[in-house]
Amino acid sequence: MMKFSVAAVAIAMVIGGAGCSASTDSQAGAGGKADVATLESGTPSVAVSAKQAERPRKRLDDTLEDTKARYKPYEDCMIEHGFDVMKERAKGTSRGSAKSAAANKACENLLPLEPWELDPANPEVGDFMRDVVKCLKGKGLENAALGDDGKSWTVRDGEADPNSISKSDSESAQKVMDLGQACQREVAAKRK
Predict the structure, then answer these.
(1) Exposed (0-12), middle (13-18) or buried (19+): which is 103, by Cβ within 10 Å?
(2) What number of other Cβ atoms are within 10 A of residue 22's Cβ?
(3) Angle separating helix axes 64-80 and 98-107, nearest 10 degrees
(4) Dihedrals φ, ψ of 87, to 5°?
(5) From the CB of residue 64, how many other CB atoms can be counted at a distance below 10 Å?
(6) How many CB atoms neighbour CB 144 within 10 A?
C-alpha cells in the first residue's frame, strides 16, 4: 500500500459551523418576549495554539517557487542556529541529530503549516479527503482509497486496478502524487 500523507506531499514539494449562543441583550424584544438562544451561522472556529497562529500556512495552489519562499525563513533560522537543512540533506545527514533538534526547536514557529484543507486540525478534513478519493477514482485511479486515519488518501497495490502502482516505480508514484495534488486543488476550488 502506498500512502500519501500530508507530510509526504510536503517533503516532495520542498525537494523538487454553526453554533448556538444566548443573547446578552437585557431588553425584551418586540411584543415583550424575553430573549432566547439564537442560531448564528458562520465559520466554525478551531482552537489553535499561539505558536500555530504565528506560523505561515501553505496553500494547495502554491507553486514550487511559493513553497520555497514559504520555507526560506525557516531554513534561514535553522542556519542561524547551526543546522543547514539543504546542505545536510545533500550529505544524507540525519535530521534526527541533537544539533537539528535544537535548531528546529528554536525555529519551529517559522515552519509552514499544511494547507487548511489538509490540516488534521480542520474538522472537515475527512470530508475533503473523501471528495479527493472520489476525484481520483473519476480520473481512473480505481485503487485510490481513504487512509486508515480518515485524514489522508492512499493507493492500495493490487486492489481493483490491474495497473496498480509499484512502490519501487518512482515515475508512477510521481504521477500519482501529481494526480492527487490536482484533485486536491479541484476539490478545494469546488468548495469555495
Answers:
(1) buried
(2) 9
(3) 110
(4) -65, -45
(5) 11
(6) 26
How does strand 153-155 pair with strand 144-146? antiparallel
**Per-residue confidence in pLDDT tens, the chain, 192 aa:** 444 444 334 333 333 333 333 333 334 444 444 444 433 334 444 454 545 557 999 999 999 999 999 999 999 999 999 998 888 888 876 666 888 889 999 999 999 999 999 998 999 999 999 999 999 999 999 899 999 998 999 988 754 343 444 445 677 888 888 999 999 999 999 987
CA–CA gap between residue 170 and residue 21 (Å, rounded): 52
What pTM, to 2 d.p., does this model score?
0.60
Cα separation of 142 and 152, whole Å? 16
* Radius of gyration over every alpha carbon of the chain, rounded to an integer in angstroms: 22
Q: What is the largest CA-CA distance in the chain?
A: 77
125 close to 165: Cβ distance less than 8 angstroms: no
Handedness of CA 83, 84, 89, 92 (dihedral sign): negative
